[in-house]
Design a protein that fits this description.
It is built from 15 helices and 13 strands. By secondary structure, the protein is of the alpha/beta class. It folds into two domains: 2-197, Rossmann fold; 286-411, Rossmann fold, CATH 3.40.50.720. Helix 12 runs parallel beside helix 13 (321-329). It is globular. It holds the Pfam family UDPG_MGDP_dh_C. Belongs to the UDP-glucose/GDP-mannose dehydrogenase family. InterPro entries: 6-PGluconate_DH-like_C_sf, NAD(P)-bd_dom_sf, UDP-Glc/GDP-Man, UDP-Glc/GDP-Man_DH_C, UDP-Glc/GDP-Man_DH_C_sf, UDP-Glc/GDP-Man_DH_dimer, UDP-Glc/GDP-Man_DH_N, UDP_ManNAc/GlcNAc_DH.
């Protein structure tokens, strides 16, 4: 089987790697010339365990190549971004539409086209299907169209692409069957065949469920700071209940999924999706909450920001709330940023970030931040104070003051 994958980012590249490892001929398409050159040398641009070795070997064996343009194939998979439109929160399908139009000259009868990009309910039937019908294809007869959303965790993408159950949403039952044959090349989890619109809403609701539950924890943190209760103790005690699993509060929600997908549902039914929108508003308010408490801790000075990735132990900073927090603090504070997982010429080492700092602000739960050399840090700082917004630091020496979501009420 030959597979052409449009988009070589956090989903497209790992997907391409697995098809190539399972004896498929793969063409990975992207618009970045530099990325394409590097991929054809076996050099990848994302931090994700296992991907680099697979791509290097696939390039050597000539079963994977990167290209600026699509090629004829048996199956085409679209894995491009889908941001939301700020004015009305609706799904921006422009990248998906462009990607679909780009493969039209290469599609032949009998091919399968799969949209992996997360899209709003009804998008496949109402927007994507007409693109191919206008080109003369009959969906379900001579071209097979499906929406098959990914469900993976950064840091474990390869394992989860293989072992997680996969939703296969066909425009017709035959479309779902054909798409399942494509993923059958490497997926070991169950292939769940359904309608495209069901697959679309299922994916959006998976991320909405998580967003709403994070919002509940964040709201609890605000309540506890106001009334003088330790939020972390509340969560620990409540979670002793056999049917309760409260999340941990944080500085906000990032990533290309949780921070965006709930809006796709809200835009479709705003009068009905009130909890969904309120959860988004709550999570979006957390950067301001962090900034307000930083100002209570220190009025001015230097802040060492630790971590800008939205998820610990990855270099993925898409939609990270850290950037909004940094931007708002930069007006009144000197900011030094350290993130061991992200290459950025403006970032500095941990020693340089903490030198003469008045506050350490932890915004990401990288393992490197869980057990630091606190003796060295306290000696290099002007004021040894840490504000841990990820609640990962369990104990510090007496000379260091630690704030987290358990004791913010002390600032009121």
């Amino acid at each position: 089987m030959k597979v052409c994958i449009i988009g070589q980012g956090y989903i497209g590249l790992p997907t391409a790697a697995l098809f190539a490892r399972n004896h498929c001929e793969v063409v990975g398409v992207d618009i970045s010339e530099e990325m394409i050159k590097n991929l054809n040398k076996g050099i990848i641009h994302i931090e994700e365990p296992g991907i680099s070795d697979i791509i290097k070997k696939a390039v050597e064996l000539k079963v994977y190549k990167a290209s600026l343009t699509p090629e004829k194939a048996d199956a085409f998979i679209i894995t491009v971004p889908t941001p939301y439109i700020v004015e009305n929160y609706s799904c921006d399908l422009s990248y998906v539409i462009t990607a679909c139009e780009s493969i039209l000259p290469y599609i032949e009868k009998g091919n399968t086209v799969i949209i992996e990009s997360t899209i709003a309910p009804m998008s496949t039937d109402e927007t994507i299907k007409p693109i191919f019908e206008k080109a003369g294809f009959t969906i379900g007869e001579d071209l097979f169209l499906a929406h098959c959303p990914e469900r993976v965790l950064p840091g474990k993408i390869i394992d989860e692409l293989i072992h997680n159950d996969r939703i296969i949403g066909g425009v017709t039952p035959e479309c779902a069957k054909k798409a399942s044959e494509v993923y059958g090349q490497f997926v070991e989890g169950d292939l769940m065949l359904t309608e495209a619109k069901t697959a679309e809403l299922s994916k959006c609701m998976e991320n909405t469920f998580r967003d709403v539950n994070i919002a509940l924890a964040n709201e609890l943190a605000k309540i506890c700071a106001e009334i003088g209760v330790n939020a972390l103790d509340v969560i620990e005690m409540a979670n002793k209940h056999p049917r309760v699993n409260l999340h941990s509060p944080g500085p906000g929600v990032g990533g290309h999924c949780l921070a965006i997908d709930p809006y796709f549902i809200y835009a479709k039914a705003p009068e009905q999706a009130k909890i969904i929108k309120l959860a988004r508003d709550t999570n979006n308010s957390m950067p301001d909450f962090v900034v307000e408490n930083v100002k209570k801790i220190i009025p001015d000075g230097k802040i060492a920001v630790l971590g800008v990735s939205y998820k610990g132990n990855t270099g993925d900073d898409r939609e990270s709330p850290a950037y909004e927090i940094i931007a708002k603090l930069s007006a009144n504070y000197e900011i030094a940023i350290h993130d061991p997982h992200i290459e950025n010429p403006d970032f500095v080492s941990l020693d340089e970030a903490t030198k003469d700092a008045n506050l350490i602000l932890v915004l990401c739960d990288h393992n490197e931040f869980k057990n630091m050399d606190y003796d060295l840090i306290s000696k290099s700082m002007v004021n040894p104070i840490i504000f841990d917004t990820k609640n990962i630091i369990k104990e510090v020496p007496n000379e260091i003051k630690l704030y987290n979501y358990g004791n913010l009420y002390e600032l009121n």
